[in-house]
Amino acid sequence: MRQSLQNDFIAVKPAPFCYHRPTTRDEVDALLAQLPADVYLLAGGQSLVPALNSRTIRPGHIVDLNHLRNEPHHPVAEKNEFRIGPLVRISALLGCAELLTAVPVAGQLLRSVATVPVRNRATVIGNMMCGESAAELPALAALLDARVVTRGPGGSTRTRPLTERTSPRHDRVAGGPADGEWVSELLLSRPAPGTRMAFEESGRRFAATAVAGAVASAGRTADGRSSLRVAVFGAGTKPLQLAAEGPAGTAPHHLAEQIGHRVRSQLVVRDDVHAPADYRLRLACELSVSVSRRVLTGTGG
């Protein structure tokens, strides 16, 4: 279960660390309960490995989840939700026909995530928990009322909204609210019948980090009011989620423009190498209004 690079040193780019290879979830629980705080979980490694190689981080311990036995490698479809384990890759979502049927916009959005090799390796939970503001999947998950199941000492579990997570460190899918916890499952709710969704993003080139993007969903509340939800990503220092409602028959452009005004007033943007802040903000507003109009008028994905 445990291998050490300190006892049998191998010259690699990262700083020396102890490597652990558990084969069950119970072994992961036990390791996290006994190891010090400088431990990271390795699943897909698309964020963690570059950080290790550049020595941006120097953990004392790496716990590799890739050798866990009897873990599903595809989403598990249930009546009201999809259950996603720690080893489900992003590409596996694209191979889940039931998910793509329930959430038609997911196909377009998932094909916009990085490149095929990255999608084949990156895990869904790792992508959700890495804290990247330009990531597409967390925006979609927010509109699907995503929840995470965390495991703690002794195998205890609890379920909480994805939005309650703290800022984790790369692929340390622990990164949770209490020491020794790690995220063992992600739960995505099925959209209610009649829900319409749309997705748009803009980047400087194919597979590049999004300069700005937005996902929207629209439906009806229990009392028949028009309901609109929008998640904005890429443009701000952190993702922004907004919601608006109006009486049945409310003109679509009224709700859409309301979302646009709120994006302009609430989104925190900054300059970077990809685009200046004012351009990001303007683009985020236009994309938010565009996807809002599409779902409200029934022309969404």
Overview of this structure, please?
There is one protein chain. The chain has helices spanning 25-34, 48-53, 90-94, 97-102, 105-110, 116-121, 124-129, 136-143, 252-266, 277-297; strands at residues 2-4, 18-20, 39-42, 61-64, 76-77, 81-84, 147-151, 157-161, 182-189, 196-203, 210-220, 226-233, 240-246. The chain has 301 residues and is of the alpha+beta class. It has 3 domains: 2-67, Uridine Diphospho-n-acetylenolpyruvylglucosamine Reductase, domain 2, CATH 3.30.43.10; 76-189, Uridine Diphospho-n-acetylenolpyruvylglucosamine Reductase, domain 3 (2-Layer Sandwich); 196-297, Enolase-like, domain 1. The strands form 3 sheets. Strands 5-6-9-7-8 form a 5-stranded antiparallel β-sheet. A 4-stranded mixed β-sheet has the order 1-2-4-3, covered by helices on one side.
